Amino acid sequence: MQLLDELKEYLRIDGNDEDRSLSTILQSSIFYLENAGVKQPNDYFLIVEGKDVFALHRLAIMMLATHFYENRIAITPSTIKTAQQPIPYGLQSMILQIKWVDPDELSQQQ
């Protein structure tokens, strides 16, 4: 499974009509996490000793992409205080946890 397919499943989206927008949102989510200090793995679907070692990385990407997808409004001075939702607190906590994970170290454990 690829990240785009997983995101579409997570958002419950059928068809390919929104693939271009979803790809942009997906890449923006990954860049956001990288800028927050999260190192990205080469293989998001790596299994080590039966464990999906980057599941939390993928969940953070999905949650952030969902936030971007659901908050696609134009920001103007009149909407900035009422319409724009902050990034969920649970996601902020998750980012703090995974930013200390070294994907290379986890990948070498197989």
Low-confidence stretches: none
Number of strands: 2
The computed structural class is mainly alpha
Any idea what the radius of gyration is?
Answer: 15 Å
Average of pLDDT: 87
In angstroms, what separates the terminal alpha carbons?
20 Å
**Number of folding domains?**
1
Helical content class: 40-55%
**Beta-strand residue percentage:** under 5%
Order of helices and strands: HHEEHHH
Anisotropy-based shape: globular
Number of helical elements: 5
Please give the order of strands in the largest beta sheet: 1-2
Biggest β-sheet description: 2 strands, antiparallel
Protein described:
- Pfam families: Phage_connect_1 (PF05135).
- This is Phage-like protein.
- InterPro entries: Phage_gp6-like_head-tail (IPR021146), Phage_HK97_gp6-like (IPR006450).
- This protein is mainly alpha-helical.
- The protein contains five helices and two strands, in the order H-H-E-E-H-H-H.
- It has helices at 3-11, 19-35, 55-70, 89-98, 103-107; strands at 47-48, 51-52.
- It has a two-stranded antiparallel ribbon.
- Helix 2 (19-35) crosses helix 3 and helix 3 packs antiparallel against helix 4.
- It is globular.
